[in-house]
Fold these 3 entries.
Entry 1:
Amino acid sequence: MDKKSIEESISALDMLDCQGMFLKDFLLTWDFSDDQIQAVFQVAEVFRKMRLANLSAKVFESGLAISLFRDNSTRTRFSFASACNMLGLELQDLDEGKSQIAHGETVRETANMISFMAEVIGIRDDMYIGKGNTYMRQVAEAVQAGYDAGILEQRPTLVNLQCDIDHPTQSMADAMHLIKYFGAKEKLEGKKIAMSWAYSPSYGKPLSVPQGIIGLMTRFGMDVVLAHPEGYELMPEVEEIALKNAHTAGGSFSKTHSMEEAFEGADIVYPKSWAPFEAMEKRTELYGRGDIEGIKALEKELLAQNAEFKNWECNEQLMQKTNGGDALYMHCLPADISGVSCNRGEVSAQVFERYRDLLYKQAGYKPYIIAAMIFLARFSNPGRKLTELAEAGKKRVH
Amino acid sequence: MDKKSIEESISALDMLDCQGMFLKDFLLTWDFSDDQIQAVFQVAEVFRKMRLANLSAKVFESGLAISLFRDNSTRTRFSFASACNMLGLELQDLDEGKSQIAHGETVRETANMISFMAEVIGIRDDMYIGKGNTYMRQVAEAVQAGYDAGILEQRPTLVNLQCDIDHPTQSMADAMHLIKYFGAKEKLEGKKIAMSWAYSPSYGKPLSVPQGIIGLMTRFGMDVVLAHPEGYELMPEVEEIALKNAHTAGGSFSKTHSMEEAFEGADIVYPKSWAPFEAMEKRTELYGRGDIEGIKALEKELLAQNAEFKNWECNEQLMQKTNGGDALYMHCLPADISGVSCNRGEVSAQVFERYRDLLYKQAGYKPYIIAAMIFLARFSNPGRKLTELAEAGKKRVH
Amino acid sequence: MDKKSIEESISALDMLDCQGMFLKDFLLTWDFSDDQIQAVFQVAEVFRKMRLANLSAKVFESGLAISLFRDNSTRTRFSFASACNMLGLELQDLDEGKSQIAHGETVRETANMISFMAEVIGIRDDMYIGKGNTYMRQVAEAVQAGYDAGILEQRPTLVNLQCDIDHPTQSMADAMHLIKYFGAKEKLEGKKIAMSWAYSPSYGKPLSVPQGIIGLMTRFGMDVVLAHPEGYELMPEVEEIALKNAHTAGGSFSKTHSMEEAFEGADIVYPKSWAPFEAMEKRTELYGRGDIEGIKALEKELLAQNAEFKNWECNEQLMQKTNGGDALYMHCLPADISGVSCNRGEVSAQVFERYRDLLYKQAGYKPYIIAAMIFLARFSNPGRKLTELAEAGKKRVH
């Protein structure tokens, strides 16, 4: 990876208007302009090239990155850790079980108490509809108020590591994967991507991945098809955003209740299970009431409902219907693989195996995407800062 | 924050005799001379100014900081993490559940095993009267013996992150808050501070905060009034220290069984719940015997006892009795706020809300105080080292 | 510690052929040549001298070290943390409970997902015979495949932090302790070391320590005697390695069912409890079948079997039989100390107490050994890199 290639990527960044990203939380991709979204890809690419050239990207001599995971995570946890480490921030996990939150702390209080020397706060809160993103905005308001009141000496930036609405670090890494796979962002225009529901023997999976995908991929002039059985609707407001995006970008956004139809001629397929929006709303309400019996009954109902759609499996037969029979298969991982992690799942072992390396590469962009999100929020002139880093030429491994 | 201001703070430090702090554990504030206490404030202030001036305070290229929390913590945990990170130490938490301590390790053994490359060990052990501070001293003796025997190549410094007797990082941060709020340490002379018990629907809260407050604030020439219902006595030996301090410093230390009387004309109020010392001694003994029924009976008894004093709530009516009706309200957080975190608690929502920003600022001094405690124990000539750091001028954020 | 002493140690390293260590996982000591084993001691010694001379050994500006502990650990956990920190890597623990492994991830997937920016992966997996080392090799294959496929930009190195077969960071630290204690590796020739089973009131302790000891100590021309009651056999393949090693190195490897015989004239004794190999195989199988009743029955049986050998205790009477009555007593810690951590255990309190400092020193070499293992796997020309570090002269503590 030579110096010139890095300089070119920085020059491309300098063409973009990304002023508004400074100090702005990254909560939903649709909060950002096309230039700003492009800036994330561009900075991520510079960081990738710098790493390949063994150049240090440590812009912080000290400082904390706080993570708060309210749901399990491997990829995102380690991606966030990698991104922060690359920039020079030390990760501290807020384990709510070990903190005093149970002992009467409010969101506002906790947010300030963990932020005295924090540059970034990453949060995963994806379990309950209407809760996760709301919580993140409460934290954002709290640290903003803390900063305005002179309590915090810096205003930490929030990065959404998956909420009930969007999963921006996932969808952005997915998009970067598409850009690298097809060669350029422009190559995505006119491509057909099928974001399809798929069967899983579990229930209650978040809607944030399919929502993130239709909310982002509609911006690149693609034909985005959303497929799911009746009853597995996404949040209407996100579908509206997808429609609006498609209109602006010159692609399309359509829906179908047939996986086959969605796969027909598709260049990219993204088959993944999720829970029905309305059921998730009901579940959130039941949890709120502490209605354990109601939750159990709902689980049973949902699993029975799922089981009606066991044929929604991404297998070779379906893949044959895609463009040239070799659409790019995507998944956020871990996937429910038929005969491997479950009897019958989202994808056949054969299809999964064929795309395994590409799936892992897809995941591999996430650390760079997260680092880019943090970087753009912390430096008002990102192009100049990257140039300084590249010119300083400090080695990552001595 | 200009260079001159930093230099002035360092010069003030150079006037103080803080030689004895080198390699000395920070366990109780009354283990330290007035100059040494002042040195902590002074170094904390230099670090704060350096951070505001974007100067790196990283004095360690590598090295570990070990934390051991035997009770929940948010503020102190993140403050310790922030302080260590600012100095260049990586935090490693000794989670006793994941270690082999249950499998036969002695305190002496564990202390040495975690310390091979440790510069500092921070411990919270505040649950049992007669235990926490004793444990810290055992750890201190163990690492001292390890160092003397050539097992440890450096003698890690202990920092008390709250024990059964004192909570020095809290009381010192509280004092720094007072110094900043009133403008100078000298301005504290003659001020009246009411350290008062307050009602809480929980029981068994440590005594270390009120003890830390009366043990420290009596050193600044203040009129320190301790108020609590009968039966909520503190440890007699700490009260003696408070008396002695007040005598030396020219202030006063008095006690009352009336919250109103304590608040009368007070410049500062610190209403906070704690458990009665004798009950805590009994509880420690019951735990030692594994007497579960006895513990349950004691809990019930304590909660009933607490409930007799529900009127010990810091509310606007009481605040009206303070000097000018606007005494500074303090709390170590989290507070039991009436109508917010409980039906009836230590403080009314109205009072808490009015002082919220100041309470958060109060907490914000803790990272600097901890960093200063570590720094003074690790560098024999702190003034020169700070001057070197300031003159090196390395940026914290590039 | 002067510069010349460091240079001498580096020169000694340069005499050794350790080319093959670059990018090679450290799983079993017998995977490495004598020169390579010696190189680990040599690098560990350079790091120790550099630390004593306050020189930074930070060769990584950024990068992650991943730890995965499937069993409790204090020493190894903190040694690994210390080693990684010294080299500039930030430790991230893969807590399987918090990850999505339960949710369908394969070993191959997890291994890649945590490795995007990882330089080293340390694993402890010692509970089940036939499982731990196998798991490590699966992880190694997975990251190799990921690297070959261009998924990983670097191939992280694995370090075995204890498996079912070997405990190389322990045995190598133990050997370094012997070298330092007796003055030189050459001084070990002809020394008699008794690796003896000892009674413990617990069961199911791993075989990896005795196996690691006989597999390594037989390389130094020592007379290695393995002693245990009938029924406490080690894995036959490791005994074969010990025999072969002894033959090559010019020492001996013998077995006895008498602790007294083993101690007779010994220069070093290492009395430690372990479970019988066959019982461990049976246990692994029972766990595999989820046969809880069978496991309980086996536990009972094993404890009863152990209890027949309560006289296998290292006490002063036995120590009198050793060479001059003052053989070096070793243990990997924590030890079951009679009258301290249990009624009757592996060692009497008197013997343990007499050797306590030496035991702690023994443990103190582990951070350096681990750092050396990582370093030799990450740098193709370790001697030159160490020279650069020493000449750069960057201070660890400023």
Entry 2:
Amino acid sequence: MPRLVMKFGGTSVGDIQRIHRVARHVKREWDAGNELVVVISAMAGETNRLIELTAQVASLHDAREYDSVIATGEQVSSGLVALALQAIGVPARSWLGWQIPIHTTSAHGSARITEIETAELERRLKGNEGRERQVVVVAGFQGLAPDGRLTTLGRGAGDLTAVAMAAALKADRCDIYTDVEGVFTTDPRIVAEARKLSRVTYEEMLEMASQGAKVLQARSVELALVYGVRIQVLSSFLEPERITPMGSDPTAGIPGTLVCKEDEIVEQHVVSGITCSRDEAKVTVRRVPDKPGVAAEIFGLLADANVNVDMIVQNISEADKTTDITFTVSKGDLKNAIKALEPALAHMGQASVISDGRVSKISIIGIGMRSHTGVAKKMFETLGERSINIQVISTSEIKVSVLIDSEYTELAMRALHAAYGLAA
Amino acid sequence: MPRLVMKFGGTSVGDIQRIHRVARHVKREWDAGNELVVVISAMAGETNRLIELTAQVASLHDAREYDSVIATGEQVSSGLVALALQAIGVPARSWLGWQIPIHTTSAHGSARITEIETAELERRLKGNEGRERQVVVVAGFQGLAPDGRLTTLGRGAGDLTAVAMAAALKADRCDIYTDVEGVFTTDPRIVAEARKLSRVTYEEMLEMASQGAKVLQARSVELALVYGVRIQVLSSFLEPERITPMGSDPTAGIPGTLVCKEDEIVEQHVVSGITCSRDEAKVTVRRVPDKPGVAAEIFGLLADANVNVDMIVQNISEADKTTDITFTVSKGDLKNAIKALEPALAHMGQASVISDGRVSKISIIGIGMRSHTGVAKKMFETLGERSINIQVISTSEIKVSVLIDSEYTELAMRALHAAYGLAA
């Protein structure tokens, strides 16, 4: 029988009425005969309330106690969803991370899933051994450490639980219900013409998630890519009964966006999406000696300070045998980055650091870039025509990112969206 | 080393400040070198909030899902208490019911403890095998069913967890922290002269709990009696540092009330306490045929309807070979009781039912009654002098209960309190 994982985020179970709507989404798929795993996040606001409680008790957490407290959010919502399903005649039971178990590392607060035991869940899904088959409702975001204590997988890791369950149980699709209709060509709040994509590749989705799109957690997309889990992103606010239930072809009749392998996408775009990130700060180390080992020292110091560096550019040498090194970090890391560089500056004579937080990173992303030329050129031309100065460039196989003055963010995005023909 | 179980109820952990005070109570005992098990209830109001959530989702509960949701209250508070202890330098970890495990029956919502695994807890308490010893913080009220699902033990069963832990770990004492200073001769809100008892026997405490005193749950007292667990009832609002920590004599220097065996009580009272219960309703079945099997039929019907009958009295036969049977039930059961009697009335000719909800049950309780005569006589005299009519009487070895018009409740209690010399 077709097997489907359905994941509902915190806003989708934010109150009792919404929990009942979630149950109707599940009932639709149940009535169609699908085997169902339903992954539930904590009710919106609940995780923050619990974090706040632990913060009020002690500023320095024991991460094991923290996880034990925080994991209750999903324990409550998964129980409530199971009750809501039973109330409309759908057999269901909730499963906590430790009951399945979802084994994880002992890295409390951001544990990694190591193994999911599926034998008992298979029996429940199929209804083996004379048992009635039932919906498996899973408390997302949580697992069991080797020493028997509760772990959590990190913020937003409800998606990760869903994809991991889909991989372990070889589900035909993993539907991620959220508060938007799917994956868009760009942020519709900035570009009115933004259009929902019907399909997007794992690689594009991964770049989008990494470059600022918040619709899916990057770790989950990575996992889906590795295990070939088809993901659909769709809105939980659609009327449940107006959606076509999954049938024998899990790629057919979907209202959201399907994240899948390249060969499942017929209509290929050169550029599929445009993202922006305003959480960038630019740091330039000026007049550093242009000799071997200097870059290694600078980025070694940053790594030691746990500062994540994104874009890097190094100018050619000046006449005085010095050069400039420019890189970007997240705004939150800027202070730490500058402090981390102090030891290097101390012995580099004339070197100095300047920084700028008023920058945005704009990225164009598309799997078609691999086989098309001139994609980057069109980006630079489009920005040039609007007199938008490009400060730093970085590229990957399917992405071109530029750093620009943040004043021009919206202008640049609208111009690029039109230039690549992304409007409907 | 002396071993102590400390139990804190919902009001004692009702907010962050109170949780820190709980930690100071525990630190006092830790600093004195005691081995400590700390049992925690859900923060005040939290269990009701969770019950309300499940009730909003579905009026008919799956008790297994209900338990999974409700058990989160203690999961949160036990984690917070462990964090608060760590913050003041007391090594501690929280233990959930399933982690210990506390094995229970599968009677969800009111499960019975069947076994507590203690080997690992013993190691933590003693600090065996090179490990630092630590405080064992236990989430009260919850356990693990044979099929691996979460159970809860019923309302107020945090006390039960504490006494069961004390029994399993052979603790020297079990301190129940609550919002009153101890066990009183009677309700101080009714009788201003009510006095805190320094010691009371299990048997007396059991009668008090059953006859309306709310300070300890009756099931917990029963368990303490069976396993000989010394209980102290005391207030969590006392300044933690003003209490003397437990030393080698667990009956010495206690600020609350010690519930213990008869032979640990030097100064014996004939009557130790007076309780009242207003949750009574009186039912009289009039003019029932006075022949064998009639009482069996009436009380059989009530038992089938799950109506708990307390006091029973039957008059002598009238000239017409009929009699009256009077009994009491809790007010909440009154409707069900009357309905349950319908089949009997149908074939009993002239029989009819009358009921009265304006009654109170007043009980005098004292282990000394076993060896003293005239105790009941003094009660009847005292009430008679105030023209208080006694409607029903029932007695046990250490208790006399009377049913009176509820208008006279306070008058009766004050008169009896004085008559038995219970004031300081």
Entry 3:
Amino acid sequence: MLTGRDILTTKQFSIKELDLILKTATRFEQALKEKRVLNNLDGCIVASLFFEASTRTRLSFEAAALRLSGRVISMPEAAVSSLAKGESIADTAKTVDGYADVIVIRHAQKGSAQTAADYAAHPVINGGDGSGQHPTQALLDLYTIFKETGDVSGLTITLLGDLKNGRTVHSLSYLMAKYGNRMIFASPSSLAMPAEITAELKSLGGDVSETSDVDEALAESDIVYVTRIQRERFEDPAEYERLKGSYVIDMKTVARAKKGIKILHPLPRVDEIATEVDAYEGATYFRQAHNSIPTRMALLALVTGRA
Amino acid sequence: MLTGRDILTTKQFSIKELDLILKTATRFEQALKEKRVLNNLDGCIVASLFFEASTRTRLSFEAAALRLSGRVISMPEAAVSSLAKGESIADTAKTVDGYADVIVIRHAQKGSAQTAADYAAHPVINGGDGSGQHPTQALLDLYTIFKETGDVSGLTITLLGDLKNGRTVHSLSYLMAKYGNRMIFASPSSLAMPAEITAELKSLGGDVSETSDVDEALAESDIVYVTRIQRERFEDPAEYERLKGSYVIDMKTVARAKKGIKILHPLPRVDEIATEVDAYEGATYFRQAHNSIPTRMALLALVTGRA
Amino acid sequence: MLTGRDILTTKQFSIKELDLILKTATRFEQALKEKRVLNNLDGCIVASLFFEASTRTRLSFEAAALRLSGRVISMPEAAVSSLAKGESIADTAKTVDGYADVIVIRHAQKGSAQTAADYAAHPVINGGDGSGQHPTQALLDLYTIFKETGDVSGLTITLLGDLKNGRTVHSLSYLMAKYGNRMIFASPSSLAMPAEITAELKSLGGDVSETSDVDEALAESDIVYVTRIQRERFEDPAEYERLKGSYVIDMKTVARAKKGIKILHPLPRVDEIATEVDAYEGATYFRQAHNSIPTRMALLALVTGRA
């Protein structure tokens, strides 16, 4: 169903395709637990092109490829200069298309993954395109929600923090809308979800509301998805100082929230979740990080037709 | 015939050795097309040491090694500082010689690959040594010419652009001379082929002429090998502005050239070939880039005695 | 005996464990000589996280993993920024713990490897933690001493050069003390072995003396372990100029030393050993560098329970 397809945005998937991804990830995770050596990508080369900093996403994709016995050629973001040196993304894609069977690309330019996909014959997976999308993060978030709650619909989820600049929450919100979940956007007003995304979600039938009252939101939520608020996003430093505390999750916040609330975070976490929360059973963010492996294994295997 | 040998310069090869490389590359390309998993380098480690920027060459060598089931340890150019930190190339070569079965090295210093080869017991392949040679690029160019024209001799080839600084055209010209092809050097006079290379080519029996009339050259050429003219190579910016247009290939240039002319370029291409040319049947540069894989597979397999 | 264990410091090992490491390294080196393909780490992923410059150690660990058919995800020091970006070592360790079966970490912060080990369930190997320890270098030094002298005890060893800042000599001195060897510390007084280490070695029963007379020390030594004296370690440049000559090993030094003295050096060597010494039979430093492969293979195989 996904063989030969590119993974560019979460908007592209049907429920049936999403279910297939979840099912495949579940199967691979089981195999990993049983320490079975998988050979799905035997003889396949995965090109891992990171034009923008993301060691975490890069290592996770590469580990996923290797877990399936794939082989990896890797361009860490620091080595970018040479390949990027004045060359268009189209030319880079056409060249690397001859080296590899599937291309994972992260690039600061919005739309870059789409361009690469337009020019490469092999499947292209978007590892984050600037302020655009980060679909594989959202899919591992979905897989995490599925595993942690046993369901993907009928949920209330608060997206918390910097909703303006976070491509992760943008990508995830489309998936949540697709499954008919209720979404609460809790952010400082200057970092609210972009109006065009909110409008698009509503047009897709999304149940969306906005608030700046974090406690109220969490009191009704099965899940809170935390993102970091970066000081440099504020024009007025005083506003940052005034607001940042409200968006920090600690055990007091958890105590006021709906019982059993699951806390997700795409990581890296700096201080927006207190380390005391790590011991809380609903703190899923490290399990979530580990879910990147079976999820990305599923995507690599599905697009190459080897699941 | 090449087992245990270093690949340092295109001058080193006999016609018989070149034929073996072409034949081996052809065989590997066929295997790739049939999606056969090759195990020639099973258990071998290839060290990929890039002291100078060249993600493209690095990724291509690593993909070639992996296609043969080799294993790769990689130093991207950005990680150079530590290994290079005051250490001689000789010491680096002696050290890495204990880690790997074959060493690919790119280094800004002319003669660096020769030095590495002098000190390493395992085969060393020159991935570009400053203004010196880039023999594996020239060999994949040769393989491209062979595939695109069905022959390696009896051809007229124009080398176009910056012939002074381009190690790629230096390396290629020796191969062309060896096969008795006619060469036309078309460049601004300040970027002409170095006199000592022209002299050496002639002493080897090379049929060489020079011109600054691009159209005239292309009207007689089966092949044009385009290189980029970099602004910073000119002392006088006005001269750059005056000349650059003459060395840009677009469909008008193609219309004036010999019918069926094949256009090669080592890439990355910036604006010296208009993108409209990409659709032209004789535009071989992306196929040429892909030819790097079977050619470098052939070299790795031949020097390790596993072809 | 070492299955599931972390490798953090040379202080942690019993003689029995050290013997097992030496025996395992010997066995792997024999297999490498016979060009046998080993599959001990088949299906295992080794994470190679280098937050601090050390291409040599990184490539050697990765080659060791690959020699055992392990798979490698690699973060060269140059790619650090993203992973490190404000994230704690604890969080990084917990995340990567889900990607890999064993983690090799180098980080400028003393105690970093211990922290990683505290938070990761999989074994952590310290690849150098700032001014702390570099246990795997000391273990390959020990393996070198064992191979070159046929013994690990009953020896006199001079540690030469900058003993203050060299974590390599710190790590090695504990191993030498454990085996009851006699140690002579020969350094400029401003770069002497830290008093707390000397005291600890003595409390462990170490036979330790200090001198600034290099010739006298070498006249009694079976082994000299040379480290580099860096100009920037001196407050007074004149002192550096006055002293540096005394700590350079050339063939005149060798002539005055005990007959058959073995010269070790962790590399890279700059000018503290003259290249004329390379031809001397007792110059072991390149063989020592190559011993990193079987030693690190042994460590990776032992901690994963696959030796």
